[in-house]
Amino acid sequence: MTEGDTYREFDNASIITSADATVVIGRYKFRKRDLLLGGVAVLALIVIIILAIVLAVEVNKNRTAEAPGSAPLVQATPFSTVTYKETHQSTPFIVTEVPTAPCDTVPCLKAAVYAKMNLNQTVDPCDDFYTFACGGFAAANPSTPDLLYLTPTTKILFDNVKQMMAFFDYPVERATAHSYERKVKHFIQSCNNHFDKMNLRGQPFIDKVLKPIGGWYVLNNWNVSSFNFTQQLKQVHVDYWTTAFFGVGVRFNHNDWNKRVVELFYGGLGMHYRYYGEDGNLVTSITDMYKEYMRNLAQLITFDAGVHDTETDARTNIFVEDAFEVENVIANFLLTSAAQWEPHNPENLRSLGDLTANCNNSLDFVDYMKAQFSDAPEHFTSATQVAILTHGYFLFLCPVIANYSSTPEGKRKLHNYMVWQLVNNYAADLSWDYVHYTRVIKH
Ligand SMILES: *[C@@H]1O[C@H](CO)[C@@H](O)[C@H](O)[C@H]1NC(C)=O
Ligand SMILES: *[C@@H]1O[C@H](CO)[C@@H](O)[C@H](O)[C@H]1NC(C)=O
Ligand SMILES: *[C@@H]1O[C@H](CO)[C@@H](O)[C@H](O)[C@H]1NC(C)=O
Ligand SMILES: *[C@@H]1O[C@H](CO)[C@@H](O)[C@H](O)[C@H]1NC(C)=O
Ligand SMILES: *[C@@H]1O[C@H](CO)[C@@H](O)[C@H](O)[C@H]1NC(C)=O
C-alpha cells in the first residue's frame, strides 16, 4: 500500500456516517460535515469581534478616567481652547493621540514655553495660521546690535552652538586616554586659547611657514638663486594646503562612474576675479582697500619678526605690487575665458606630459602630482590624463609662469605671490591684530 492510498482511505472515512450525509440548498449541494465546520468558523469570528469591541470600550474608558486626576501642568497642546477640543470630543480616535503624561520636566516646560512664546493667540489660526503660530516670535526675540536678523531656525542654530560651546568648556569628566570627550574638549579648548595666541602674535607663521619655504623677500632672508618654483609650489599646495595659481581635486568621472579623474581648476586669488582690473571707481576703491589690507598684514609680520624699518617698508610696497600684479594677470585672463564644457570628455583631457612641455619645464606636473598624491605616486606618469575646468587657463598659465621664471625679478614676483597666498590663508588663525585686518576685507 502506498502513502497516497492511506491518505485517500483516511479522507474517505467521513465523521458523519449517516446515509443521507448531504444537504441541498437551492442549486447547491453540501456535505453535512462541511456545513458543520463552516458554522463553527462563523461563530468563532463573531465571538472575536464582540471581544474586540468590549476591549476597545474598556481601554477608552480607562483613558478618559485617568485624565482629570493627572491634569498636565502645561497643556500639551496650545489649541485646547479652540475648535480642536470639539473635534476630539466627537472623534474618539483623536483622543488617543494627545499625550496625557504631565509636562513637568525642565526640557518639556522649556519647549512648551518656547512654543507658547512664539504664538500670537489674538489671531485665529483659521484666518492666518502663520501669524498665529509664529506671530509672537519677533516680540519675544528683539533684535540686538550684533544680531539684526533672527529667525526661528537661526535661533535654534545659535542656541545649539551655545550649548555645545558650554559643553566643550566644561572640564573633562571621562579622562581616559581613548576618551572622545577628552580628545574633543582638549582640541576645542586649544583652539580657543586666545591668551596664548595673543602672546605668540605672528611668530607661528614666521617660524612654521616662512622659514620652511626658504624665507621671505620682505624679511630679507630669501635668496633668489636658490628659488625653485616647482618646489615652492609643492610646499604651498601640499604642506600648507593653500591654493596658488591652481587647485587640484578628485571627482568621479562623468563618463564612467566606476572611475575617478583628477581635476585642475583656477585658484589663488584674494578677491573674486571681477574685482580686479582698472575700469570704474568702485573697482579702484576695492583694489585700493585690498592692497592696504595686504600692506597691513605684511607690516604686522615685519614687526613681529623684529625687523621693521624703512627698508622693510620699501620691500613691503614691492611685495604688495608683486603679489597684486600676479593676481591681476590671473584675474584678467579669467575675465575673458570660459569654463570648459564637459571637461571629462576624452577629447578635453590633457596629459601631464603636455602640461609640463607647455610650461617649458618650469613646472613639472608629474613631479607635482606625485607629491600631491604621495600615497599613490605610481598613478602619475607623463601619459596620465587630467581634466581642466577652465578653458585655456593652463595653456595660458604655464607660459606666464615660464616667463616669470626666466628672470630674477620674475622669480621674486612668483615668490611674493605665493607668500601672499599663505599670509592671506593663515592670518585668520593668528592673533587678533591679524584677524582684525582679515575682517575688513573678508566681511
Ligand atoms: C498679534 O497680532 C495682532 C494682529 O496682527 C497684532 O496687532 C499684535 O501686535 C500681535 N501681537 C504680538 C505680540 O506680536
Ligand atoms: C644664495 O644661494 C646661492 C646658491 O644656492 C649661494 O651660492 C649663495 O651664497 C646664496 N647667497 C646667500 C646670501 O645666502
Ligand atoms: C626643483 O625641485 C624639484 C623637486 O621639487 C627637483 O626635482 C628639481 O630638479 C629642482 N629644480 C632645480 C632647477 O633645482
Ligand atoms: C621656452 O623654451 C624655449 C627654448 O628653451 C625658448 O626659446 C622659449 O622662449 C621659451 N618660452 C618661454 C615662454 O619662456
Ligand atoms: C613676459 O614678461 C615680460 C616682462 O615682465 C612682459 O613684457 C611680457 O609681456 C611677458 N610675456 C608673456 C608671454 O607673458
Automatic annotation (TrEMBL):
The chain crosses the membrane at residues 35-57. It holds the Pfam family Peptidase_M13_N. InterPro entries: MetalloPept_cat_dom_sf, Peptidase_M13, Peptidase_M13_dom_2, Peptidase_M13_N. Residues 125-435 form the Peptidase M13 N-terminal domain. The keyword Amino-acid biosynthesis does not apply. One of its GO terms (biological process) is protein processing. It comes from the Eukaryota. Gene3D superfamilies: Collagenase (Catalytic Domain), Neutral endopeptidase , domain2. Keywords: Membrane, Transmembrane, Transmembrane helix. The keyword Ligase does not apply. SUPFAM superfamilies: Metalloproteases ('zincins'), catalytic domain (SSF55486). One of its GO terms (molecular function) is metalloendopeptidase activity. GO terms for cellular component: plasma membrane. PANTHER family: GH14155P-RELATED, ZINC METALLOPROTEASE FAMILY M13 NEPRILYSIN-RELATED. This is Peptidase M13 N-terminal domain-containing protein. It comes from Lymnaea stagnalis. The lineage of its organism: Eukaryota, Metazoa, Spiralia, Lophotrochozoa, Mollusca.
